[in-house]
Amino acid sequence: MRCKGCGAELQYADKTKSGYSPKEGSEYCQRCFRLSHYGDLMISMKTGIDPYEVIRKVEQMKCTVLWVVDLFDFEAGMIDGLNKRLADKKIIMAATKRDLLPETLSDDKAARFVFSRLKDLGIHIDTLILTSRKDQEAIEEIRRVVKETSEGLPCAVIGKANSGKSTLLNCLGRNEQLTVSRYPGTTLDFNEINIDGQIYIDTPGIEVEKSMLMAADEKDLSSFVPARRIKPAVYQLKGNQSFSLGGLARIDLSDCEKASCVFYLSDALEVHRSKTEKTDELWQKHYGRMLKPVPVKKEFAVSRKRKDLDKIDIVIDGLGWACISGNVSVITVHVPKGVNVTYRKAML
């Protein structure tokens, strides 16, 4: 038997391994039970799943693909070589967590943004559906499109860890069968589900290896993973300005004149503004105290770019983004080593 929540094979011998349950005949492993009822992680699996094996298995299946991408964390949701690996499969993209983005972003503009970024990245999809957990109209549209596109074949549900796959499947199935949490690696194995006669296969989340989700301690995720709609924070800029995003990242902006910076981050994460000349002193004095949370490994990498667009987004995978407009000469971003930074045309 497999756990109905995460897909792991149930076992009753080793409580330190996935699938453990203290009670034979239970439908859920202890890890899923505690995640669902207490938010207690118990066993971390964020680096325990081979991302290439997930795609290899889907590649060998006769199926359609429902690709789940978090709109808020869009850049981190991209999968390298997706079309090459799944060339014979029709791909439906469900862009989830629509309700986290500001109300000023219309569905039309969000869709144009998605298709523009996919074109930039050389990725083709057959259908795009914007959705959120409470958008019943979009959920019904996904059901209809998947059934029509699949034509009797199963539908493999893929996506990066924490993209909202299990939440979406629970909405499609009108129940809370699958375990959901903010922790990467919640789904541990392929999990087949029958929803209104259509077979869906929930797959383990593909590791977000270049994301802040991997760089931070799991106990700190609630302090920067947004749980409700983002409220943009606007700053007017002059001279050399620096912004510390807790102790997780830092953005330095040089030679600002008639410029502004708008942050799209969780409201649980504190942003500290300072003059660039004083920022090193600020970090030395307050890092880990006022400037928190901090990454597990304290080694930072630096990314620099000359501002070449009127409005440019600085995206930090797993954390959010800042939109810079006006006259700024150089953008310098400090992030934990291994975390990806993307510079793109502004979403909003």
Relevant terms:
six-stranded mixed sheet, about 350 residues, alpha/beta, 8 helices, eight-stranded antiparallel sheet, single chain
Provide a quick synopsis of the model.
With 348 residues, this protein is an alpha/beta fold. It has helices at residues 30-38, 51-60, 82-85, 107-121, 136-150, 165-172, 212-215, 276-286; strands at 64-70, 91-96, 127-130, 155-158, 191-195, 198-202, 233-245, 249-264, 271-275, 300-306, 311-316, 320-327, 330-336, 341-345. 22% of the residues lie in helices and 28% in strands.
Question: How is this structure best described in words?
Answer:
The chain is α/β, with parallel strands linked by helices. 22% of the residues lie in helices and 28% in strands. The chain has eight helices and 14 strands. It has helices at 30-38, 51-60, 82-85, 107-121, 136-150, 165-172, 212-215, 276-286, and strands at residues 64-70, 91-96, 127-130, 155-158, 191-195, 198-202, 233-245, 249-264, 271-275, 300-306, 311-316, 320-327, 330-336, 341-345. The strands form two sheets. Strands 7, 8, 9, 10, 11, 12, 13 and 14 form an eight-stranded antiparallel β-sheet that branches. A hairpin with a 3-residue loop joins β11 (311-316) and β12.
The whole-number mean of residue pLDDT values reads 88
Order of helices and strands: HHEHEHEHEHEEHEEEHEEEEE
* Percentage of residues assigned to helices: 10-25%
Radius of gyration: 21 Å
Major pleated sheet: 8 strands, antiparallel
The tally of beta strands, per DSSP, is 14
Distance between the termini: 47 Å
Tally of individual helices: 8
Coarse shape: globular
Please give the oligomerization state of what you see. Answer: single chain
Category from helices, strands and their pairing = alpha/beta
Strand proportion, as a percent range, falls in 25-35%
Give start-end ranges of low-pLDDT stretches: 178-186
